Amino acid sequence: GADDFTVPAGGWDVVTVTFLPYMGGSPPTSPSPITAIYLQIWNGQPGQAGSSVVWGDTTTNRLATTSFANIYRRLESEPTDASRVVFAVSANVNTTLPAGTYWLDFQVGGNATYTGPWYPPITINGQTTTGNALQWTGASWDAVVDSGLLTPQGFPFTIEGTVVPVELTTFT
Q1: Which one, of 133, 134, 137, 126, lies nearest residue 154 by Cα?
Q2: Residues 103, 46: contact at Cβ < 8 Å?
């Protein structure tokens, strides 16, 4: 999957990025069945002319930590289903990004005993459009949309690190 984020003036020293994939088939909550996370950061939307990877690759496993996120992915029709366990999966990044708009392109690997890993969209009660995430279909990057309403969806992730201070210029 892929989704965008914006770095403000000054930039960010990014340490980790945490994702929330789930696995089906009733995996245990501990130990986590997540085995890998691969991550790239693009300077534009993946697949668009002029966009390129500015950090990362699709071959280096950047898994830092993985644990039960204390939530389950459930259907409205099955509010007590505990067969889809959500995990917090942190990837080591350790890079500095200047101000600008970027895209995360990520893939998660897991124990083949279970289904997935799958990546849920952002879910906000009463809100049908939650972002502009993309998914790779094997031939192109396509919009992630709600299967019923066909409205655009975003992917949840957390970027952790520090803000680079903006340099001030004094004129005399």
Answers
A1: 133
A2: yes
pLDDT tens digit sequence for 23-43:
999 999 999 999 999 999 999
Residues with Cβ within 8 Å of residue 171, at least 6 apart in sequence:
none
The verdict on pTM exceeding 0.85 is yes
Q: Give the DSSP H/E element, type plus range, for residue 62.
A: none
Residue 152: DSSP 8-state? B
Q: Classify 170 in phi/psi space as left (phi over 0), alpha (psi -120 to 50) or beta.
A: beta
d(CA 108, CA 169): 43
**What is the distance between the terminal CA atoms of the chain, rounded to a whole angstrom?**
50
One DSSP character per residue, 75-130 reads: -TT-TT--SSEEEEEEEEEEEEE-SEEEEEEEEEEE-TTSEEEE-PPP-BTTBS--
